[in-house]
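Design a sequence for this backbone.
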């Protein structure tokens, strides 16, 4: 039976998972986080270092460092973890579309980054199977929140990224480039068609109404109780609900830093001088006269 250890990053309300076959065995890390201060530009690795300590304490070998998608609310620790622990980084093959889109938005040259996914070790496709130790991971494409969203299924545990939140949290926004509410509905139906007892492990929990942190539910609970997409809500109703919510949502605080780092697999942009790297903010002049 697979073992799961959750790590909660409070600043971004992110939950990252270490999944391993046995003590002293093999592991995967899903959706790790680098610590980052937008105000100061400081970046550090306390969160990822706690995960590294867990890996070492339990004598685990990391085979895979996985992303469920190119996150827009935190910086990925994938590159840092690989430098410390080894393993292969992997993300959806759809990352090339994300890279292409955001290379244009941030005016990133081909010399700095090619939109071919090569900055990751492996690009994953729908229904691909990868292995760690005695365990296997079934990769399911679950686009909608983003074009490159994946769900990782290990035994009866589905790591759904932002494709679903806890039932009282509903669903994630679909208004980023490549996002689509109708596509998200179809992806959630795919997850809801898994066995009723399948455990769902979410990537974020915003603790609605001040409830205690929780990051795991089941297919049965999600189908019955999810406030945005329970079994009585039609696709058309969901699309309307999702689009109405998305038009009033603020831009995520770390959108610009996150995307610039995450399309590079968790690496900073090239240093410009004296080993100093910079992140860009595209200026919207539409309201400026
Ligand atoms: Fe996300």
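Sequence:
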């Amino acid at each position: 039976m697979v073992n799961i250890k959750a790590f909660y990053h409070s600043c971004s309300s992110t939950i990252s998972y270490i999944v391993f076959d046995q003590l002293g065995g093999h592991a995967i890390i899903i959706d790790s986080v680098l610590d980052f201060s937008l105000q100061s530009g400081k970046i550090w690795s306390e969160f990822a270092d706690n995960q590294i300590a867990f890996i070492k304490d339990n004598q685990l070998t990391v085979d895979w460092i996985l992303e469920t998608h190119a996150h827009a609310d935190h910086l990925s620790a994938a590159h840092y973890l690989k430098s410390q622990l080894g393993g292969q980084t992997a993300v959806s093959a759809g990352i090339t579309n994300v890279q292409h889109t955001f290379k244009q938005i941030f005016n990133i040259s081909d010399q700095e980054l090619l939109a071919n996914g090569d900055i990751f070790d492996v690009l994953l496709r729908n229904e691909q199977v990868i292995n760690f130790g005695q365990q296997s991971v079934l990769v399911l494409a679950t686009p909608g929140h983003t074009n490159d969203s994946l769900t990782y299924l290990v035994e009866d545990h589905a790591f759904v990224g932002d494709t679903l939140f806890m039932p009282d949290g509903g669903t994630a926004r679909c208004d980023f480039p490549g996002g689509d509410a109708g596509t998200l509905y179809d992806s959630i139906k795919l997850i809801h068609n898994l066995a009723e007892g399948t455990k769902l492990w979410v990537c974020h929990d915003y603790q609605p109404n001040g409830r205690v942190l929780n990051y795991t539910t089941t297919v049965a609970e999600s189908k019955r109780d999810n406030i945005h997409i329970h079994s009585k809500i039609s696709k058309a109703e969901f699309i309307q609900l999702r689009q109405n919510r998305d038009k009033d949502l603020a831009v995520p605080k770390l959108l610009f830093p996150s995307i610039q780092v995450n399309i590079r697999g968790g690496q900073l942009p090239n240093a410009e001088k004296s080993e100093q790297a910079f992140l860009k903010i595209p200026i919207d002049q539409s309201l400026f006269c």
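The helical segments are 46-57, 78-85, 95-106, 181-192, 219-225, 235-246, 255-262.
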